[in-house]
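Quick one:
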Amino acid sequence: MANVVRKIARYLSASANRKFDERADPRVQIDQAIEEARRQHEALVQQAALVVGNQRQLEMRLARQAEEVANLTESARSSLLLADRARAGGDVARAVGYEETAQAFASQLVSAEASLEDLKNLHRQAATSAAQARTAVEENTARMQRHLAERARLLTQIEHAAMQEQMTRAMEGMSSLAPAGDTPTLAEIRDKVEQRYAVALGRHELASQGVEARMIEVRRATMDARAQNRLAELRGSLGPGGGADAGAPAVAAGADPHRPSLAKGQGTEPNGHVDTASRDSLPPASGGVGGVGSDA
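Output:
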């Protein structure tokens, strides 16, 4: 039973992590990754600083120990010189005392030299560790710079992907295969207009093929024939050759056909204007409209 519970817990945890990764904002995850890389870099720099600091501390201890060894060596040498001088002067007791002092300095010198050798070994190890720490920091710094460049590239790519997704949604919204929404698409409006136009054309075609349409065409043809006949009568009332002479002026619409026209060169002045006196001597036109008069 406990094994089943653990399996269910691991399954739910994996499922929750997958759903979270699917819904998580990539920008936030990128910032989290960069922040984690910075934290690791700071920890590495701190550790490297401790290693390099240990090397520097060993160097200071090594310098002090070397100075102590030098002092003990000088003290032992001075004691031996003093002992030799005392023995040469015949002061044996004093010479023995200086020799004992030189022996004590020699004992301390041996211990100091051993400590100095140990410090040298530690310093070599610390120098190696410090060099490795510096190399690690430099490599991690370069890695951080690559991470920052990758972050900028990923953010640009994310913005580009968002723009492409928005353009795709806009194009899908304009497509005829797009699902119905609150706003009609241009394709739907075009189909609606074309359907309305086609129905109007169909109704007009059906109406033009009926009996009433043919009756209207017959009436229009009859009226056109009567108009042609009337026009021929008006043309005939102008007299022989009326309308055939290219030099004679045409009868204007609304002019009286029985009103005598001006002869060529009669009643006109040399500049081409109509003589006012000749025009006033013409008989008045009949009261018909359009030259029809009482014949209408």
